[in-house]
Amino acid sequence: MATSQTPSWREGMSSDNIKGLILALSSSFFIGASFIVKKKGLKKAGASGVRAGVGGYSYLYEPLWWVGMITMIVGEIANFAAYAFAPAILVTPLGALSIIISAVLAHIILRERLHIFGILGCVLCVVGSTTIVLHAPQEREIESVTEVWQMAMEPAFLLYAASVMTAVFILIFHFIPQYGQTHIMVYIGVCSLVGSLSVMSVKAIGIALKLTLSGMNQLIYPQTWIFTLVVITCVLTQMNYLNKALDTFNTAVVSPIYYVMFTSFTILASVIMFKDWDRQSPTQVVTEMCGFVTILSGTFLLHKTKDMVDGPATTLSMRLSKHAEEGGFNGGEGIPLRRQESSRLP
């Protein structure tokens, strides 16, 4: 019985998958910590200048924000390298670990309460991530960046990319001016949709660099530089709207919602472009989906825990804010998903 199980383990966890796993775990730690450091920097910059949430860029002069940005860049580089070794279905869901790190540090440093159900949500994220890791498919053998380009030019992925860009433009030019300050899904929707395209391009660049370092130069192909341009454009867009979301809404709310949407769109894009599930049995696919649903359940609990406040005083404060909003006072500051400062009584 043991001999029949050993090949399936090796098949699922190849040496490249293990490298991708280690890089993804490192990435989650740095990115999770960066959310907190950047949030501290945004709050400090907002106290002396125009907040990012209302279009200000004073955070660019705040050293603490740059520390957080550098930490995030280190995490993204590790994440970038992970995509060169392992499929997106393995790497992307491991971002749930960054949510755990972010939620715990927000509880300790930012004093954003983590309810007992939030802890349960962290456990579910770990369980779901472990399930996906153990059943992840092997990375597809790709011999040239032009092969990735051909995948990106297939009608199914072109239709997905066109749909994403249309949705992003509608959100930016129609919904953000009206609902950006009150509806968290608007900013995060832009980040998540654009992020799914950036991950596909990052994976293409990672494969190109991996092949180049192995002796097959991929830098001579224009497709490599087109993918690079797409990555730069998408990352700058993500950074801009993620800063607005972090400055406007609670960190422990932004992180899980962003993760769920970003992961969902990325896995969808990966399945369409790289056809990861074509090389797996139905049992493996169902198991991975169960792991993903478990992670979603965990992030949902982390999200809802921000509405479960401890103590009658805070509950009364939120109720008073709600009544004030209904009576026409305080604008939108009674919204529970807004920053904690806006829901406190003077």
Q: Could you explain how this protein is built, in words?
A:
The chain is an all-alpha fold and 346 residues long. It has 2 domains: 2-308, no CATH class; 310-346, no CATH class. The protein is 75% helix and 0% strand. The protein contains 13 helices and no strands. Helix 6 (116-134) runs antiparallel to helix 12. It starts with a helix and ends in a 20-residue tail after the last helix. Mean pLDDT is 77; it is low at 1-10 and 309-346.
| Helix percent band | over 70%
Oligomer: single chain
Strand content: under 5%
The major pleated sheet works out as: none
- Uncertain ranges: 1-10, 309-346
**What is the string of helix and strand elements?**
HHHHHHHHHHHHH
Topology:
Layout: H1 2-12, H2 15-48, H3 63-85, H4 88-91, H5 96-110, H6 116-134, H7 145-152, H8 155-179, H9 184-213, H10 222-248, H11 251-274, H12 282-304, H13 312-326
Helix pairs in contact: 2-3, 2-5, 3-9, 5-6, 5-11, 6-12, 8-9, 9-10, 9-11, 11-12
Function: Acts as a Mg(2+) transporter. Can also transport other divalent cations such as Fe(2+), Sr(2+), Ba(2+), Mn(2+) and Co(2+) but to a much less extent than Mg(2+).
Organism: Cucumis sativus
Family: Belongs to the NIPA (TC 2.A.7) family.
